[in-house]
Design brief:
Layout lengths: L2 E5 L2 H11 L3 E5 L5 E3 L6 E2 L5 E2 L1 E3 L4 H13 L3 E3 L5 H14 L16 H8 L7 H28 L10 H17 L4 E11 L6 E8 L2 E2 L5 H10 L6 E12 L7 H12 L3 H13 L1 E3 L3 E3 L14 H15 L34 H4 L5 H17 L4 E12 L2 E12 L30 E12 L6 E2 H11 L4 H13 L3 E4 L2 E4 L1 H13 L6 H15 L5 H22 L11 E5 L6 E7 L2 E6 L7 E12 L6 E6 L5 E5 L8 E2 L2 E6 L6 E5 L5 E4 L7 E3 L8 E9 L1
Parallel strand pairs: 1-2, 1-7
Antiparallel strand pairs: 3-6, 4-5, 8-9, 8-16, 9-10, 9-15, 11-14, 12-13, 14-15, 17-19, 18-19, 20-21, 21-22, 22-23, 23-24, 23-31, 24-25, 25-26, 27-28, 28-29, 29-30
Helix pairs in contact: 3-5, 5-16, 5-17, 6-14, 6-15, 8-13, 9-12, 9-14
Length: 710
């Protein structure tokens, strides 16, 4: 019988089978096969936190099939993902199959290529029990926090809530930012922005007021700005100083898990969950025309910036062939330094085969796969390219003794920017433009000189990209868990997403306040970061996972018991749960409830009164087919669409949001198409009208419109 290789997914199994050939049987465990029961704590606290594992419901037949295959096989290799979670899955498989964990039956693949698979199979090892214990420690710690805290939070605030070691801190970070925004008091300041034209030229250049020969002058109000303008009204401005320099821009390092999620959010608009799903597909293998199943990228859960010499050599050869020798750094391959606490088990995220350009495989990939592969491929190639060299010019313009400053640059050598430039968080950076030729004492003419009022701005709300960056900088959680964390805090209603911006709901703020008052350590950034470091010591074999849990649980249990006792008669009311409606059946106030299919309005007298009222989201637009209101509806999978409130008497339905505007060509209703370039368009057959959308988003109002008795 052939040798048996067990991986996690069918896609990965298919790709690996191609490289191993006929002597091997490759099957998938479909992820975890054994875990803690989701409906119970499943941790025996009194017996040194012994976990009570059991087969995951629905995987009994799969487990039986694996046992039968293992018995028939000459040898079994455990080839689950090369990380903490994958090591634990292999450990559980070894238990189920009766394998010796001390046997060299564990193989890992950093990339699913012929070389990567061969290297993995040539170096089998025993299961790394320290890695398994690190996974167990995290799993049990999160179970203790979640299963002990969640019922308490649910009882005090609202049924169905949850708390978590990482999620609660993430919510607090967002809440704290919102507090800063509210407390912020804008301060007025002014600028004077000018455009000058050099003598003998038609090209104007921009410059900003700086001050005078004594230094910078802060313009605090419009009166001061006007006084300065009056003082410069009859000035004969000239170039007082010109400074030329050279600026070298270095390429960004290759991706790690966190930076991939950030850049995919900024450049592609992907949520982190979407990014990791697509990256997993690219790693495990995609059917490429003429090549079969191919793993396109290295393992995507990593925080190391290390790159293999083979990959660096391949990148160098590609760059020379595509752009020439001058695009390869004269100093040789670029090596990047990882963070001090980075796990160095895997390389940075890179294409498995440099020669496979995104354009070559585009037809074989989904749109998401192509976009992400292109991003990873370009980032890796660019990180091994020459720096971009810019010639800079800075000039001081003297106008009646006052100084304006201008700066600009031109690209002397494009280097890596010919392929890729990293995006930045926040507002767009000021774009410098090339200045016209300027010389000292050259007279310039004023084209315009305008005062502009400004106000200091509060700190920006977090986006997924900036939240991931903050979590990583604070040392909270692991990059591989960020996608799940953000998904949890949004789906639970603690945080809302508006376009790319994250902001806390009242539920998020109230829950955080309760946590800060009663469980300050759980939502303390420094404490959580230290806990993360302690968990890493288990992985390094420096600390017992049981000792770590004992150290945490004693204080946590006391705090929880105290909170339960002191708050036994307390119930926290949320403003957002109240309505102005009175129950038409019993006269009691109606309140907002949260059910399996979203929000609804119910009588506060439940269970004595079971009156329920639907909630409808109006957009303030009349139905194009009748006099009804257009409302937001949801599919079974949660996707928004638009319909008429008079359904089923009116069958209007649209994926696109109708607006109040009419088409100037045919008079039909215009619809809104969202995205990077929002548009208003007409869907009338044969019309084809569309234009940029510069309107404000419609305000969605919640209104109770009909009542139903349960």
């Amino acid at each position: 019988m052939s040798k048996l290789v067990i991986v996690e997914s069918p896609a990965k199994a298919k790709t690996i089978k191609k490289y191993l050939g006929s002597g091997y049987e490759v099957v998938a465990s479909m992820g975890h096969i054994r875990d803690l029961n989701p409906n119970r704590l499943s941790v025996d606290i009194k017996k040194k936190f012994a976990p009570k594992y059991e087969l995951i419901k629905g995987k009994e037949k799969l487990a039986d099939d694996l046992v039968k295959l293992a018995k028939k096989s000459d040898y079994v290799y455990l080839a689950t993902d090369p990380d903490r979670e994958g090591e634990a899955i292999s450990w559980h498989l070894a238990y189920i199959l009766g394998l010796d964990p001390e046997e060299n039956n564990r193989v890992t693949f950093n990339e699913i290529t012929k070389t990567g698979v061969k290297n993995g199979m040539d170096a089998p090892r025993k299961i790394d029990i320290d890695l398994v214990n690190a996974q167990q420690a995290r799993r049990i710690l999160d179970r203790l926090v979640g299963y002990k805290l969640s019922p308490f939070i649910s009882k005090k605030i609202r049924k169905g809530l949850s708390a978590g070691r990482v999620q609660s801190v993430a919510v607090r970070i967002i809440v704290d930012r919102e507090k800063k925004i509210r407390a912020f008091k804008p301060e007025e300041y002014w600028s004077i922005d000018a455009k000058f034209i050099p003598k003998g030229s038609r090209k104007a250049f921009s410059a900003s007021f700086y001050g005078d020969s004594k230094g910078k002058i802060k313009i605090e109000n419009g009166q001061q700005a006007q006084q300065l303008l009056d003082a410069m009204k009859d000035a004969q401005p000239f170039v007082e100083k010109v400074r030329h320099g050279t600026r070298k821009r270095q390429p960004a390092p290759p991706f790690i898990t966190s930076t991939l999620q950030q850049e995919a959010s900024r450049k592609l608009g992907f949520q982190s969950k979407r990014t990791m799903k697509v990256a997993q597909e690219l790693y495990e293998g995609v059917e490429i025309k003429g090549m079969g199943s191919v793993g396109l990228i290295t393992y995507m859960r990593t925080d190391s910036l290390r790159l293999s010499e083979d990959a660096l050599n391949a990148a160098e050869e590609y760059i020379k062939g595509k752009w020439g020798d001058k695009y390869v750094p004269a100093t040789g391959h670029r090596h990047f330094k990882s963070r001090s606490n980075a796990q160095d088990g895997h390389e940075a995220i890179r294409p498995s085969t440099v020669e496979l350009e995104p354009s070559q495989v585009k037809d074989s990939l989904t749109n998401d796969q192509y976009k992400l592969y292109k991003l990873i491929w370009e980032r890796f190639i660019a990180c091994q390219m020459s720096e971009c060299i810019q010639k800079t010019t800075q000039a001081d313009i003297n106008a009646a003794g006052y100084i304006f400053k201008a700066s600009g640059y031109r690209v002397d050598f494009d280097g890596f920017t010919v392929l890729y430039v990293e995006s930045k968080d926040g507002t767009d950076e000021e774009k410098e433009s090339e200045l016209p030729p300027l010389e000292k004492d050259m007279p310039v003419k004023v084209k315009e000189m305008l005062p502009n009022q400004h106000f200091t701005q509060p700190p920006a709300r977090y986006t997924e990209a900036t939240l991931i960056k903050a979590l990583e900088e604070y040392g909270i959680g692991r990059p591989s868990t960020y996608a799940a964390t953000i998904s949890t805090i949004t789906s639970r209603g603690y945080v809302k997403r508006e376009n790319k911006t994250l902001f806390p709901t009242e539920l998020g703020e109230v829950t955080t306040k309760l946590m800060e008052e009663r469980f300050p350590k759980i939502v303390n950034v420094k404490f959580t970061a230290q806990m993360e470091q302690d968990l890493d010591t288990v992985e390094d074999g420096e600390c017992s996972w049981v000792a770590l849990l004992e150290n945490f649980y004693g204080d946590f249990d006391k705090t929880l018991k105290k909170a339960k006792e002191e708050m036994k008669d307390v119930k926290i009311e949320l403003e957002e749960d109240k309505t102005d409606l009175i129950c038409e059946k019993c006269g009691k106030p109606m309140v907002v409830k949260f059910g399996r299919y979203g929000r609804f309005i119910a009588c506060s007298g439940y269970p004595d009164c079971k009156n329920i009222v639907k909630m409808i989201s109006k957009i303030g637009v009349q139905c194009p087919k009748c006099s009804g209101d257009v409302i937001v509806r949801k599919t079974k999978r949660g996707r928004d669409f638009y319909g008429c409130s008079n359904y089923p008497n009116c069958n209007f339905v649209s994926w696109y949001q109708p607006t109040k505007e009419k088409c100037p060509q045919c008079g039909n209703v215009l619809f809104k198409k969202k995205g990077k370039a929002p548009k208003l368009f007409c869907n009338a057959e044969g019309c084809g009208y569309e234009r940029e959308d510069d309107t404000e988003d419609a305000v969605v109002t919640q209104e109770a419109v009909s009542s139903v008795t349960e």
